[in-house]
Design a protein that fits this description.
Chain A is an all-beta fold and 118 residues long. In chain A, 0% of the residues lie in helices and 52% in strands. Chain A has a single domain, classed as Immunoglobulin-like. Chain A is globular and about 45 Å long. Chain B has no helices and eleven strands. In chain B, the strands form two sheets. In chain B, strands 2, 4, 5, 6, 9, 10 and 11 form a seven-stranded mixed sheet that branches. Chain B has a four-stranded antiparallel sheet with strand order 1-3-8-7, with no helix packed on it. In chain B, a hairpin with a 2-residue loop joins strand 7 and strand 8. Classes of the chains: A mainly beta (118), B mainly beta (116). Chains A and B meet through strand 5 and strand 6 of A and strand 4, strand 5, strand 9 and strand 10 of B.
C-alpha cells in the first residue's frame, strides 16, 4: 500500500518570502501522479499543482513549483513571493496510474498548516 | 465550466434522522468519489464509482451509509440513521480517466454535517 508523509505539521513564512513544504511517499509502482491540494478555512479542497511521475521536468504553476525527486520519493512544494491568501492547510497526495486496482483512490498526507505573517 | 457541485453546504440534524448529501460531478467526468474529513481521521475515501458503477466501497463505515449513482450527473450519499460521530465534512470529487487532465481529482466545496 502507498503511504504519504508530511513531516511538518506547521510552517510559517513572512509575506513576500519563499517557503518549501516537504512530502515523501512510499510506493513500489513506477507510474503514478502526485498532487498538492490547498485547503483554506472554508474547507474547500483546491488543486495547486500536479506532477506525472514519468516526467522528469518539475511542474510549475505561477508562484508554485515542485521539486520532484523520484528516486528519493520526495515531492516538495515551493511557494515563492508568499501572499496572505496562501495561508491554508496543504495536503500532498498520491494516485496510482493503475485504474484497474484500488489505485484510483487518492492517498493523502497528514497536511501542513501554513501561516503567512504580514 | 462548473465545478463539482454539492448540496447542502451545511446541515444540522438530530441523531436518528436520515441525511442525504447530493453531488453533481463535472460534466464528462467518469469517476466520482465520496470522501469524509474529520480532525481525528483526516481525509478518508468512502466509496468511488467508475462509469456510475461502484468500484470500491470498503471505506464505507457501516451499513448506515449508502451511496448511489443513478446516472452520470448525479450521486447521493445517505446516512440512516445518523449519529453524532458522523459529524464531518463530506466531499464529493470527480475525475476523467484519460486525457491531458486525466487522473486529476477535482473536489466540491464539501457538505458540513453536524449531528446533534
Amino acid at each position: 500500500a502507498q503511504t504519504v508523509t508530511q513531516s511538518q505539521p506547521e510552517m510559517s513564512v513572512q509575506e513576500a518570502e519563499t517557503v518549501t513544504l516537504s512530502c515523501t511517499y512510499d510506493t513500489s509502482e513506477s507510474d503514478y501522479y502526485l498532487f498538492w491540494y490547498k485547503q483554506p478555512p472554508s474547507r474547500q479542497m483546491i488543486l495547486v499543482i500536479r506532477q506525472e511521475a514519468y516526467k522528469q521536468q518539475n511542474a510549475t504553476e505561477n508562484r508554485f513549483s515542485v521539486n520532484f525527486q523520484k528516486a528519493a520519493k520526495s515531492f516538495s512544494l515551493k511557494i515563492s513571493d508568499s501572499q496572505l491568501g496562501d495561508a491554508a492547510m496543504y495536503f500532498c497526495a498520491y494516485r496510482s496510474a493503475r485504474w484497474e486496482t484500488s489505485g484510483s483512490r487518492l492517498t493523502f498526507g497528514e497536511g501542513t498548516q501554513l501561516t503567512v505573517n504580514p | 465550466d462548473a465545478g463539482v457541485i454539492q448540496s447542502p453546504r451545511h446541515e444540522v440534524t438530530e441523531m436518528g434522522q436520515e441525511v442525504t448529501l447530493r453531488c453533481k460531478p463535472i460534466s464528462g467526468h467518469n469517476s466520482l468519489f465520496w470522501y469524509r474529513q474529520t480532525m481525528m481521521r483526516g481525509l478518508e475515501l468512502l466509496i468511488y464509482f467508475n462509469n456510475n458503477v461502484p468500484i470500491d466501497d470498503s471505506g464505507m463505515p457501516e451499513d448506515r451509509f449508502s451511496a448511489k449513482m443513478p446516472n452520470a450527473s448525479f450521486s447521493t450519499l445517505k446516512i440512516q440513521p445518523s449519529e453524532p460521530r458522523d459529524s464531518a465534512v463530506y466531499f464529493c470529487a470527480s475525475s476523467l480517466k484519460q486525457g491531458i487532465l486525466g487522473n486529476t481529482i477535482y473536489f466540491g466545496e464539501g457538505s458540513w454535517l453536524t449531528v446533534v
